[in-house]
Amino acid sequence: MIIHHPSGLIWLGNNDGFIFFGSEQNEEFNNELNDFIDNIIIPAAKKVQLKWFEGVGNHRKWNSIIASVFEHRHLGSWLQRVYTLQQGDYKGDTVPIMNHEYELCKISASLLDNKDHSIHNIVFCNPK
Fold it and tell me: Is the pLDDT of residue 52 over 50?
């Protein structure tokens, strides 16, 4: 009997991150990751001047596999907090209390068009 452990890798649209998903025990998949990084990811990343990327698993069991598979590479690790907004928690008709040093702007199509140049770093917000 053959046991299949489907696994995959999603290259995020902003090009600087990957999500490993499925079974972390897929040895065939894991054994090919470094060749894939070296031959596909690194050349593509160099074209857009990326020098690093972030890789995370969709569950904790990936952590030790990622560390093992990429042990010969320079790896960093940190904790991340993810917050979610539940539908009942959203209060769209309230105005947040803010420090007077900040300005609150409602995001709209006209704001993003930036015809009045009110957003000084629009390229950062909306890269083309």
Answer: yes
